Amino acid sequence: MTGTRVDPRLSLNQATVKYASLAEALNATVAAGIEAIGLWREPVQAVGLAEAARMLADSGLRCSTYCRGGFFTDVEGPQRRAALDDNRRAIEETATLAAAGATGSRAVLVLVAGGLPEGSRDLPGARARVRQAVAELADEALAAGVTLALEPLHPMFASDRAVVSTLEQALDLVADLPPAAAGVVVDSFHIWWDPRVLAGIARAGREGRLATYQVCDWRTPLPADVLLARHYPGDGVIDFGPLTAAVEQTGYDGDVEVEIFNADIWADAPATVVATVARKFAAAVSPYLVSS
Question: Is the predicted pLDDT of residue 182 greater than 50, yes or no?
Answer without folding.
Answer: yes
